[in-house]
UniProtKB/TrEMBL annotation:
SMART domains: HTH_ARAC. PANTHER family: ARAC-FAMILY TRANSCRIPTIONAL REGULATOR, HTH-TYPE TRANSCRIPTIONAL REGULATOR EXSA. Residues 182-280 form the HTH araC/xylS-type domain. It holds the Pfam family HTH_18. This is AraC family transcriptional regulator. InterPro entries: Homeodomain-like_sf, HTH_AraC, HTH_AraC-typ_CS, Tscrpt_reg_AraC-type_HTH.
């Protein structure tokens, strides 16, 4: 029952962003690491923040409410009031935004409140690529920046919605496409650094390789290989922004056979080279 209610609230957020995205103004973004904060009331104009804790844990005291945040938690918060954050060892992605009109801000605040009723369910590994992409778009200043960020933000909530649906089916003991997809996605997430064979993946879910390929394409719109490449590039972007690894080390770390192939695929998908992407991310 809780998951079905969460899906309903996530659907509300997705529809709101879709209908009123032209009124969203993206503000700051980035990564917050191992530092507490204590800020007074920030603005009379309502502002919102979506955060994702990649590692560690911390507590946020916002407008008199305590939010305990653990690894892989996603929170959508209204941040116009004063806030206090504990320190500790953690890595937190964040994106701040506002709306052009008070009416839209008030309505979106209602969405936030209804979504915050399910904090324990908003927990999912593997979302860092969404935040890295939004951060890159926010600071790179390329054409159609805001439109691209809206697409990524909406994709993030759609991902949460779909994983929630998969979790609902799994907890109800159902079998079928969603369960096989859940198993395959988890397997790829855990093993993307290794050479992967379609037959081994098919054996994992007890399906014929050709049949698995067809089901996966129908469910995701991508082949398993296409999905795996995008997953590896997403992991590479994280390493480019958060480490000083060489391009060759990142290529090998994320499952590519060599640096040349990695750079070629990266530019095909991102429009820039890995080096250009790394230079666009500011130091923490």
């Amino acid at each position: 029952m809780q998951n079905s209610q969460l899906q309903k609230q996530l659907s509300e957020v997705i529809d709101f962003i879709c209908c009123h995205g032209s009124s969203i103004r993206f503000l700051s973004s980035g990564v917050w690491v191992d530092r507490g904060w204590d800020t007074p009331k920030q603005s009379a104009k309502p502002m919102f923040e979506i955060i994702y804790l990649l590692s560690g844990q911390t507590r946020i005291y916002l407008n008199g409410i305590t939010h305990a945040v653990k690894k892989y938690d996603v929170h959508l918060l209204e941040i116009s009031g004063s806030s206090l954050g504990e320190g500790g060892h953690f890595q937190m992605y964040y994106l701040d935004f506002s709306f052009d009109t008070p009416d839209l801000a008030d309505r979106f605040y209602g969405c936030c409140c209804r979504l915050s009723a399910y904090p324990e369910s908003m927990n999912l590994a593997g979302l860092e690529s969404y935040f890295l992409e939004m951060h890159f778009e926010n600071i790179a200043g390329q054409e159609f920046r805001r439109q691209k960020m809206l697409c990524i933000l909406q994709d993030l909530f759609i991902c949460l919605y779909r994983r929630c649906a998969i979790s609902t089916d799994h907890s109800a003991g159902r079998s079928g496409r969603q369960q096989f997809l859940y198993d395959v996605l988890n397997y790829l997430e855990q093993n993307y650094t290794y050479p992967l064979c379609l037959k081994n993946i098919a054996d994992l879910v007890h399906l014929n390789p050709r049949y698995l390929s067809r089901l996966f394409k129908e469910a995701t719109g991508l082949t398993i290989q296409q999905y795996l490449i995008r997953l590896r590039i997403g992991k590479a972007k994280k390493l480019l922004s958060a480490t000083s690894y060489s391009i060759t080390d990142i290529a090998l770390e994320t499952g590519f056979c060599d640096c040349q192939h990695f750079c070629k695929v990266f530019k095909q998908l991102e429009g820039i080279t890995p080096t250009q992407y790394g230079r666009s991310i500011p130091s923490n």
